[in-house]
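Worked Example 4.2. Consider the chain below.
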Amino acid sequence: MAAVSRLVVAMLTVAALAVGGCGVAALRVAGTDSAMAKLAEWGRSHGLNDEVTWLEKQVYLRNQPALGGEPPGGIPAVAGAVPQVPGSATLPSTPLAPLSGDPPLPGEGSWHTVVTAHGKPAVQVAALRPDDQHTSFVVGVLRMDPALVRGELRPGTTDPGGRWATAPSLVPADRDDVAVAFNGGFRLTDPSRPGYYSQGRTVTRLVDGQASLVLRADGTADVGRWNQEVRMAPDVVSVRQNLVPLVDGGALNQTCATGGTKEWGTTIGQTAFIHRSGFGVTASGVEVYVAGPALSVCTLGRILQDAGVVRGMELDINPDWVSGAYFHPRPGGPPQGFALFPDEKVSPQHYLTPSSRDWFAWFTR
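Applying the procedure from the previous section yields the following structure tokens:
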């Protein structure tokens, strides 16, 4: 994988230099993004979207995830678990059903409280294998009680760019009550043209029918088809669109297996088993984020369903962009961050420095 990644970096750098010596400038973009991510973003922004996608496909074809086996060491212990906090009526302790086709490994699918508010479980996480083929990989599932946390859409320095009332990183004022942070969706310049609205401003046009993560003034989230299940209202403070709904009415979108670029974007393809992320809501309003490796669009959707999601959507993909974290406050210093799943490439500390891409943060109430 490292050799192929170096090849991709070299090819993108050559392309950048060929159109004006921009390779160095691309690598100097602020933030913690990897060299390959920075060059890929530069390429997509300079008319090389098809070429970057081709390179990503070559990386995938040479490094497809292994089949069979078990996670090294089994299902990992949950870092940052809060001891002796039982489930609640909103977040019951019933474990997730295993999707591997085998009996669950010890700890697989079990919920662990990692953030509390007012003595109650506010954020819980679980880990499970993604399907019956990629059984050596572990995916993270995170769920939040909307009565105890509130969500915000945060800007990135590049996407959407510009000046905003909120910072592109967790600033000192955020650090005592931040609970969760995770990635947004595809770039706003992606050919799928995701819509973006925040703080009273429309950056890219909201598209009817697109899957939309809507945040309201009370900090609660909803997901649905724009102008069908969710729409503009006085209490809507942000809308982040990405692709088509993945789960709707509790049912999986069957184009996850049969669709193409119209539904799932000009990317490596919806059937590739790669790092993916998604978000959804349950019938009771519980907010769920899923992220991990070796996921197709279909298996991502099945895990959202497994967690009780009735309306859900895919967010970003690829190891450089899929990043879910939860936090514990540290008096007098930055919060301690914990990665949601073992193969997470992006450190939780990423959110303590300006992010190039938009992202979401949830805070305790």
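Residues 69-365 form one domain. The chain has two domains: 1-63, 69-365. Compare this with Example 4.1 before moving on.
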